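Priority: medium. Attachment 1 of 2:
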């Protein structure tokens, strides 16, 4: 018979969202009984991986021990979630433990589906196929860039949700810069293939990025989705989403952003919405079906970009509404869909897109952050990592 324990507030996932919520709950009331289910020994600040792939930082700069960030007094259940049973207020772990709860917070992140593109899982990390979305292979991105001798460099975006929608193009701009420094840009094609209709969804930011693309001579293939890689032939097969025709493009290196989606354990649970994400009211973050369940971060079915910046705004709303529900009070905290995407446009240059649910600017600086600035580069490389480790994960920011 499976072992059973009870945790009053159970948090599924010890990534950005889970740790931030746990820290904020502990700061609000140190008497709360809280547990986090998380199998990983290491915690990564993944926004830094763009810069790891561009040779700016070593991978080690993005890594800390998970144990250092589990808040004091919070039980760390080092296991993987295997099943969620909200009707029974219970979760089963891969190790066979059954955990019951009074309140549940779903913060399981996004699932990277490497096998969704034939040729990707077996090819990544070899033969010019790189990806900043793999901790095992992010260093290979820099190998591909610094050893590039000319030819075609492809950068792709999947026809799915992704972590930080701007990340697939950030590495392209940095690679373009590197190629120029290496003296090979004049014999190179840099090609951006995306299922979207434009370089960015928010109009104000799009105008800046269109200028960057034009200035750099980057070719764009909009409404194109990568459907297959042929590693030995160094060919990428794309589907035109408007005509459904398929054609191949030869490459010398390709940076692939893999398809992503809801974690299987969420998709297969009663908590899932019609797309497989954890259903949640887009303002209160409460489940529409189970009043004692809340969700945030990448796993939540919220119509906004999946970024750490969104989590920073979601976490205080979730904590306030969870505590209100526990006390039988109305839910008054509201999330407006704020998200932001720091888009690095080259070494020493960055613009910042900040927007809400309506994709309207929601800017927090006294100047126009949609313009390329060195100060924004410093924000990306120096300020945001410190804010993450010492602010967000400690429940202070």
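Attachment 2 of 2:
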């Amino acid at each position: 018979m499976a072992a059973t324990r009870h945790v009053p507030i159970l948090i599924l996932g010890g990534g950005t969202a889970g740790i931030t919520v746990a820290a904020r709950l502990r700061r609000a009331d140190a008497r709360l009984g809280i547990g986090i289910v998380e199998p990983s020994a290491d915690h990564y600040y993944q926004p830094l991986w763009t810069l790891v792939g561009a040779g700016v930082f070593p991978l080690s700069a993005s890594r800390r021990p998970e144990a250092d960030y589990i808040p004091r007094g919070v039980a760390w259940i080092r296991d993987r979630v295997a099943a969620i049973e909200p009707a029974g207020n219970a979760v089963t772990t891969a190790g066979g433990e059954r955990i019951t709860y009074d309140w549940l917070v779903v913060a399981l992140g996004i699932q990277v589906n490497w096998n969704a593109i034939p040729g990707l899982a077996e090819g990544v990390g070899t033969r010019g196929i790189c990806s900043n979305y793999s901790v095992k292979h992010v260093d290979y991105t820099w190998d591909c860039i610094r050893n590039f001798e000319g030819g075609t460099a492809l950068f792709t975006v999947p026809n799915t949700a992704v972590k930080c929608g701007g990340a697939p193009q950030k590495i392209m701009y940095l690679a373009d810069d590197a190629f120029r420094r290496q003296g090979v840009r004049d014999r190179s094609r840099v090609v951006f293939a995306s299922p979207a209709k434009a370089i960015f969804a928010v109009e104000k930011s799009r105008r800046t990025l269109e200028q960057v693309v034009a200035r750099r001579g980057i070719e764009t293939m909009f409404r194109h989705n990568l459907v297959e890689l042929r590693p030995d032939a160094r060919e990428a097969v794309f589907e035109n989403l408007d005509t459904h025709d398929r054609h191949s493009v030869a490459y010398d290196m390709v940076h692939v952003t893999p398809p992503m989606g809801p974690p299987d354990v969420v998709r297969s649970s009663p908590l899932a919405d019609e797309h497989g994400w954890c259903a949640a009211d887009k303002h209160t973050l409460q489940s529409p079906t189970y009043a004692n369940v809340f969700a945030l971060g990448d796993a939540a079915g919220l119509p906004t970009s999946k970024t750490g910046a969104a989590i920073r705004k979601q976490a205080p709303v979730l904590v306030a509404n969870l505590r209100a529900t526990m006390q039988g009070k109305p839910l008054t905290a509201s999330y407006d869909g704020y998200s932001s995407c720091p888009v690095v446009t080259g070494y020493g240059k960055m613009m910042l897109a900040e927007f809400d649910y309506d994709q309207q600017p929601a800017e927090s600086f006294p100047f126009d952050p949609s313009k390329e600035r060195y100060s924004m580069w410093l924000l990306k490389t120096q300020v945001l990592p410190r804010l993450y480790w010492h602010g967000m994960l400690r429940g202070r920011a």
